[in-house]
Write a structure and sequence with these properties.
Strand content: 5-15%
Helix content: over 70%
Largest sheet: 2 strands, antiparallel
Distance between the termini: 49 Å
Length: 154
Amino acid sequence: KMKELRSAICIQCAYRSHKGREIFAVESALKEMKYKARPLYAMLQAQENKLVDITLMSSGLEESMKLAETDLIELEKELSLIKNSKLKYWDSDRITGAPQRYLTKLLKVRLQEQQKEAQLSFENLKDEIAKCQVRKREMSRQIRNINRELIPLT
């Protein structure tokens, strides 16, 4: 009976020490993986911050594009009115920002110049928005790649 009890205690001690070593090995492996994953978490945070910045910049550009588009439409309306007009003078606030009376021919030339400039800036805004969208997709792709790399480490 005593021999059985000693044998049982010996087996239990061996089992507990084996499980203890196993738990210690798992905990140390987890610590090592967290240490390896730390730079990836920092990179992930940096990429997410860049994505937020790009998103804010993109939304600001879209707002300015809407304003430029409405301004361009108003400019085209006024220009079409002036082209169809037979008056010698025309009142406009487009050139100086204050309402003034101009010769219709002069105003037509100036408004055509402004229309070209507005069209050019509108196209540039479109290009910038497209570039922001590309950068946003690139950042999202990089974030997904980092998350894929983190899966085995966590």
